[in-house]
Amino acid sequence: MSDELKIVLEDVKEKFDTVIEAFNMVTERLDRHEQAEEERFQRLETEVLSIKTDVSVLKTDVSVLKTDVSVLKTDVATLKIDVGEIRKDLNEHRNSTELHGGRVKRDAS
Questions:
Q1: Banded model confidence at residue 106, pLDDT cuts 50, 70, 90
Q2: Are 66 and 77 in contact (CB under 8 A)?
Q3: Using CA atoms, how far apart are residues 87 and 95, in angstroms rounded to an integer?
Q4: What mean pLDDT is predicted for residues 80-98?
Q5: 11-70 pLDDT, tens per residue?
Q6: DSSP output for the chain
Q7: Residues with Cβ < 8 Å from 91, sequence gap 6 or more?
Q8: What pTM does this model have?
Q9: 108 and 90 Cβ atoms separated by less than 8 Å
Q10: How far is CA 56 from the centre of its chain?
């Protein structure tokens, strides 16, 4: 083989080595980037699952609160009725007492 051909082949070999080295570097960087993105995705997925759990708990809490408010509305309505009856009884008692005692009539409010 001639010396010129050896020099050309050596030059081509060095260029291939450079291309292979560059390709390997790019592959390593892509692998690192892929791993970093996978870790980031896993963290985001964990956060999303945590948020879903929190939302589920909040929905349950809201449902319980709705039930509690409904019960409270019923209790308040019952209390209003009871207070109305007590006022009526008190006014009747006062009217009856004032008629016998001669006092000035006052309504319970």
A1: low
A2: no
A3: 12
A4: 91
A5: 999 999 999 999 999 999 999 999 999 999 999 999 999 999 999 999 999 999 999 999
A6: --HHHHHHHHHHHHHHHHHHHHHHHHHHHHHHHHHHHHHHHHHHHHHHHHHHHHHHHHHHHHHHHHHHHHHHHHHHHHHHHHHHHHHHHHHHHHHHHHHHH-PPP----
A7: 107, 108
A8: 0.53
A9: yes
A10: 8
Task: Say how far apart CA 82 and CA 88 lie, in whole Å.
Answer: 10
What's the start-to-end Cα distance of the chain, in Å?
122
- Tokens linked to 92: 């009747």
Q: Which two tokens stand for residue 5?
A: 């051909």
Cβ atoms within 10 Å, residue 8: 11
Q: Are 94 and 108 in contact (CB under 8 A)?
A: yes
In one-letter notation, the amino acid at residue 35 is Q
Residue 53: both structure tokens together: 């759990």
